[in-house]
Specification:
Order of helices and strands: HHHHH
Number of strands: 0
Shape: elongated
Largest sheet: none
Oligomer: single chain
Number of helices: 5
Radius of gyration: 16 Å
Helix content: 40-55%
Structural class: mainly alpha
Length: about 100
């Protein structure tokens, strides 16, 4: 698993400066890789949680390797996107 690529992607999406050389970060990523998760899985979790938490003043602090790549990784990976697709019915254009 390209640990550096995962961390660089996280940093890019969250405007952070995590180091891929951190032993704890490397172990978290390698543990998820041993469970069968791929680089695409890591990017999907980063994208999903960044979209959900980046602008939230309470949750943005959790956009870190310890949270994203820890024990809830599989749940995050299988989470459906929370963004609602807007339809015409969402707008009252007759007012």
């Amino acid at each position: 698993m390209p640990v550096a690529e995962v961390i660089y992607y996280l940093n890019e999406k969250t405007n952070a400066a995590y180091k891929p050389s951190s032993p704890k970060t490397k172990e978290l990523i390698r543990a998820r890789a041993r469970e069968g998760f791929t680089l695409e899985d890591f990017k999907a979790v980063i994208d999903l949680k960044a979209a959900e938490w980046l602008e939230d003043p309470v949750m943005c602090k959790y956009l870190r390797p310890e949270t994203l790549f820890g024990s809830k990784f599989e749940a995050y990976r299988n989470q459906k996107s929370w963004k609602k697709e807007l339809t015409e019915e969402d707008f009252d254009l007759d007012e």
